Amino acid sequence: MKNILNGFKDFVSRGNAIDLAVAVVLGAAFGAVVTAIVTGIVTPLIAAIFGQPDLTKVGNFTLNQADFSIGLVLDGLLKFLLIAAAVYFLIVLPMNTLAARRKKGLVEEPSAPSENILLLQEIRDLLAGQSSAAIRNDATPGTGPGSAPVV
Fold it and tell me: Contact, 143 vs 137, CB < 8 A?
């Protein structure tokens, strides 16, 4: 069990494309949680205070056949502030606290990448340095599509 937790800690502590993909998926799920909070708590609160089901209908007026919606701006601002507060208090603040503890030595730093990771990175780098046959053919003059045969 300790090995699994150490592996998870290493995974969380390093950044790469897979971690970014996971973050995007979690971000979408997090967006659903924020939407549920807004729909279930904030919207009824707004309806109780302003007498409207949401802020987009508050403060609307027309001037010279132009429709203005102060509530739409307030709604966007409120959603932004809610999401920013949730990200700060649930992600940024805990990560900053963890970084401060690591700096003080209270929490150990994640270990270096395992030997398997280093071997996979070396293989990746070697493969990236090779060019495929298709690329070599495209780079050779007179061998591309539509070129005259060399005699």
Answer: yes
